[in-house]
Write a structure and sequence with these properties.
Layout: H1 12-27, H2 33-48, E1 52-59, E2 62-69, E3 76-78, H3 82-90, E4 94-96, E5 114-122, E6 125-134, H4 142-154
Antiparallel strand pairs: 1-2, 1-6, 2-3, 4-5, 5-6
Helix pairs in contact: 1-2, 1-4
């Protein structure tokens, strides 16, 4: 079945208001988390044209690369390491305006200049993270945090 997205050219809020219901429709009724994460990453990348959008999943003591859109990425990240591992450890969203200034940043791509990482928490435990990178500095803010956190809260991973 072919799926088409309606892409908004409006404000950041309008873009989220347009894409999130479409994401929900894309994954409704699909029980496979990998398929759902793949479609989420593709829809967000298409709407916002970010450098990299993807998921890392907790497997033992590491985050392991899951479905993503963008350049090749780091495959494994230890808890507390880099932005993703720090978000996992703190169980909190991290917005990094300048990745070069983040202590211990893991440079999967030298093109990345800013990043937001949102933990996926189920039963008070982080099961993965949504990682988004931009080629622009200071690209992410509280608006992105709000909408991406709301999206992840409503998903049934």
């Amino acid at each position: 079945m072919a799926e088409d997205l309606v892409i908004s050219a409006g404000s950041k809020v309008e873009k989220y208001q347009t894409i999130i219901p479409q994401i929900k429709a894309l994954i409704e009724g699909e029980s496979d988390n990998v398929a759902n994460m793949a479609n989420i990453a593709a829809a967000l990348k298409t709407q916002f044209d970010w450098l990299w959008v993807g998921f890392y999943l907790v497997k033992g003591k590491e985050l392991v690369l899951g479905p993503f859109q963008g350049p090749v990425a780091c495959t494994r990240i230890r808890k507390g390491k880099g932005v993703c591992g720090s978000s996992w450890e703190k169980q909190a969203t991290l917005i990094v305006p300048d990745v070069e200034a983040f202590p211990g940043h893991i440079a999967c791509s030298s093109i990345s200049k800013s990043e937001i990482v949102i933990p996926i928490i189920r039963a008070e435990e982080v099961i993965g993270v949504l990682d988004v990178d931009s080629q622009l500095p200071n690209h992410f803010d509280e608006t992105d945090q709000y909408w991406l956190e709301q999206l992840l809260l409503e998903l049934k991973f």
